[in-house]
């Protein structure tokens, strides 16, 4: 079961894309019968403010150690750039599905096994 979701942010955060993940996984909806997720906002350095495209600052509380043990690691859309950082904890060195496949896997888990027609 999907319990821990980690979101990795980079400088120049796209707030809408990040906001969708925060809305879906970061809000406690236990009273509505939805399981609570351990939602982790991560970056290369914990506590370092990241700028958004409109001047807003986002301060991720986790560094890359927040990825450890995550059932789903999401990277919101960001601008195309050369040389994304390759630094990552060794424990996360595993095969990762393409974003569309990861979203489909997550939606199937969230919908209790229901498959789209």
Report on the structure:
- This protein has 117 residues and is α/β, with parallel strands linked by helices.
- The protein has 2 helices and 5 strands.
- The protein has helices at residues 15-25, 99-110; strands at residues 4-8, 38-42, 50-51, 57-58, 72-74.
- The strands form 2 sheets. A 3-stranded parallel β-sheet has the order 2-1-5.
- The chain starts with a strand and ends in a 7-residue tail after the last helix.
Overall mean pLDDT: 78
pLDDT under 50 segments (min length 5)?
A: 93-117
How many extended strands? 5
How many H/I helices?
2
Beta-strand residue fraction: 5-15%
Tell me the span between the first and last alpha carbons. Answer: 22 Å
Major sheet details = 3 strands, parallel
Strand arrangement in the largest pleated sheet: 2-1-5
Order of secondary-structure elements: EHEEEEH
Q: What would you call the structural class?
A: alpha/beta
- Computed over alpha carbons, the radius of gyration is 15 Å
Spatial shape: globular
In percent, how helical is the residue content? 10-25%
SSE topology:
Blueprint: E1 4-8, H1 15-25, E2 38-42, E3 50-51, E4 57-58, E5 72-74, H2 99-110
Parallel strand pairs: 1-2, 1-5
Antiparallel strand pairs: 3-4
Considering the chains and any ligands shown, give keywords for the structure.
single chain, 117 residues, alpha/beta, three-stranded parallel beta sheet, 2 helices, 20% helix
């Amino acid at each position: 079961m999907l319990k821990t979701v980690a979101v990795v942010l980079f400088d120049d955060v796209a707030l809408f894309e990040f906001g969708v993940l925060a809305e879906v996984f970061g809000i406690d909806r236990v009273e509505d019968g939805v399981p609570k997720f351990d939602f982790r906002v991560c970056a290369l350095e914990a506590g370092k403010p990241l700028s958004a495209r409109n001047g807003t600052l986002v301060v991720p509380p986790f560094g890359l150690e927040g990825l450890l043990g995550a059932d789903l690691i999401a990277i919101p859309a960001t601008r195309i750039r050369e040389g994304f950082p390759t630094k990552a904890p060794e424990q996360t060195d595993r095969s990762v599905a393409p974003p569309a496949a990861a979203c489909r896997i997550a939606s199937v888990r969230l919908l209790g096994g229901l498959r789209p027609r």
